[in-house]
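pls read this stuff:
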Amino acid sequence: MNENTSNNPIEWLKRITHNDSINKISRLSGIPYTTLYKRFQSNMLTTDEIIAIARGYHINPVEALVQNHVIDTDEATDVRGNNALRLSSISDIAKEIVRRNDFTSGLAAIKKAEESKADENGEANPEDKD
């Protein structure tokens, strides 16, 4: 992750927008022009504004928060394994189970088709060899 070493969110903003105009940043992020103008004057951005700008410029919002020292890298990477399951909805978990089951079923079907083809060609199944 590229860090904002200056602790100045406006420097981060200029870097990721390649010095775009306030008008363009406003248009892409959905933040009103007057709000952005005031932020440039005060050298600050709120967390919501950092996220809106990141999304407007197709940057991962979590990475943008890390770059602006809102959260640290450990906090950003802590959503995995059991933590991710706890944060997932029942619907999302069910969809993942179905997706994995379909994948496993697909692999089984491929293996069965390969075995049938080998039997038709009179080839020995490599797993049957001793």
Remarks:
- The two ends are 52 Å apart (CA to CA).
- Residues 90-120 form the longest helix (31 residues).
- Residues 48 and 61 are 10 Å apart (CA to CA).
